[in-house]
From TrEMBL:
Recorded superkingdom: Eukaryota
Record lineage: Eukaryota, Viridiplantae, Streptophyta, Embryophyta, Tracheophyta
Organism: Coffea canephora (Robusta coffee)
Domain Disease resistance R13L4/SHOC-2-like LRR as annotated: residue spans: 393-701
Residue ranges occupied by any Disease resistance protein winged helix domain in the UniProt entry: 277-347
A GO term, aspect molecular function: ADP binding
Similarity comment: family membership: Belongs to the disease resistance NB-LRR family.
Domain NB-ARC: 33-190
Protein's name according to its UniProt entry: Uncharacterized protein
Amino acid sequence: MAESVVGFLIKQLSTLLSQESTLLGGLRPDVHFSGGNGGLGKTTLAKKVYDDAAVKKQFQSHAWITVSQNFQCDVIIRNLIQQLYEEIRQPVPPQVESMKGIRLSEFVKDFLKERRYILVLDDVWSLNAWQTIKYVLPDCNIASRIVLTTRITDVASASCLASHDFIHKMSPLSYDDSWTLFCNRTFQSNGCPSYLEEVCRKILKKCEGLPLGIVTMGGVLALKDKDKIDEWEMILREFGREVDGSGKLDRIRRILLLSYSDLPHHLKNCLLYLSTYPEDHPIDVAKLLDKWIALGFIEKEEGMIATDIAMRYLKELVNRSLIQVKVTWADGKLVKCGLHDFLREIIVSKSKEQSFTTVATGYCTRWPDKVRHLAIHNFTDNLSQGFSRLKCLRSVETFGYEDPLTTSFLSKFLCGGPKFLKVLNLYKAELDNIPKEVFKLFHLKFLNLSETRVKVIPKSIGQLQNLEFLFLDETTITEVGDYSNNFALWGFKSPDGIGKLTSLETLRIIEADGGNIVREIGKLIQLRQLFITKLRREDGKELVSSLLRLTNLRELHIGSIKEEETLDLQHSISPRLGFLTRLSLTGRLERVPEWVMSLQSLGTLFLQNSELSEDKNAIDCLGHLPNLVDLILHRAYEGETLCFKAGRFPKLQRLELGQLKRLKWVRVEEESMFSLEVFVIAGCKLMEGLPLGLQNLTKLKFLGFYDMFDDLIHKVQNLDNQSDYYQTISHIPQVCTGH
């Protein structure tokens, strides 16, 4: 959608959502809807309005829920609760996991009844879905807002009952706005070369003002040689044959199909694999790339590692508007991605045609013999036949369980069946142990046993010599020490032979459990991602020595065996971790290890329980890291004052200070952290005033105070235009507080 149109609509809808005259009245939340067919940009517009600073600052709680056709009410409500608690930096109460139906609804009502909230319900397909979710929300006079997007006109009309409710009907873009969007997407400018204008305008005309169609076509054309007009004319001819005479909805699908057809073979495989994921399922980018690599979709290139090539593939699909970015870190790293509904329909259809993917449900009675990728959605015991025919399987994905997926089922499934399996994802399966058939999968490269009940990783895992990615997050550990800190309860006890897994690229989370295991890790020279916990002080030097050999590491997390244990990582030898972008250290530090200061690529640093002293200038030295954009200090500093000096932290965008128990004052000098956008302080209860020098942070977009000194919270919540606090923070678009 053209920027001028977006800007006008955002201003119009943002005013409607946040104007004081409507915020003061109304017995129930105002409800605003965006009706219109798919591809018109409803979700895009709603997201821009939801993220608008003027809207954000009017509400205490914010949540975005994607509803989809096959919604499950309890799942949606738990998602809502998760977002509400994440926003206030609090863990979700453990009893929520076992709640269902009315109890869940009452929990949400109780949480929101005294809060002004904004809730976006995206892609609502039925009036029943709206009424089910509406029942969960409190009916109170505090002027909250609900934004609902739907392509079903009757849903918008039937749901919009009050006189102050509002429907914004989406329409195709005007020709001028379409041309601006097309040129920006295709040429990264407001115009196009004169010799291409005629063919471009003919292509654009066939898009009929549909934003999704325009950006998708722009993504195809942006990669074409601008000096070869015949290539552009060929696209026009193919495009014309595909879409002439079709309706608007079918036209979008045909545009997406053309964009898919234009992909090189290796990108088609990567895109088709996304058909294994359920509708609207948030896709973990890191694990997706690992699967692409394990399945051989990534072509080798001299001088480049597979992970970087895979990320380039993903970004190309994003640039072609075929994959949507959902979540990124402050350092720009892609975290979650997804698909537009229309594109998902296309790749699911293509996958079936090619026997690429089969999605099995509890109602599936027969699976195609030659299917290569099997996705099980909501596993049931009914899926227990025909295993021996699945000789061509390369991957098995599981998403949800109605019945337990047991060890005996898995053993039967693998016995005499898929010998060439490369990806086995058993996340949250109720496995008590790993059947011996798994260790016969010689070609297996990706194994996810996270949140299973597995207690022992046997030595026979050494038989999986091609294994590259092993995930065991939050598995049931054989031995748990008498520790109160949660971080020590994650991970697994390593078998002696883990050093034989020389192809391993991802290892999370492994218990150090003595110097022998730490030495074994040093043999895994292909590691890109390492999470190690329960490290003892006396094994620190051995770990640093192992890190010397792990020169390909991108992400490193180290945790001590207990909260008071010191991480002894300060030694004369210095690891050469030139590619490391993310580092997390959990445990006491006498000082920041010198080798950390040499991490030129480091973008994210998380220090927890470090207890660094004020007199050793520990935090200030971090300010020299040239590419640090995200810094989190949680119980990491023991000083009473914290000063961010001029010239330090030049690229820092997000800073979080959590539970710095002795901290009284924070000062920000001019020209310090001049790129900072998000600043959160939580649990620093001795701080009685705002950080000094906040006015120097001219790019700050969000300032949050949580679980702080009551008087400080009160002053921030009740700003007077004449107060010193108002003068200090009035330039910040969004200021939030909470307990």
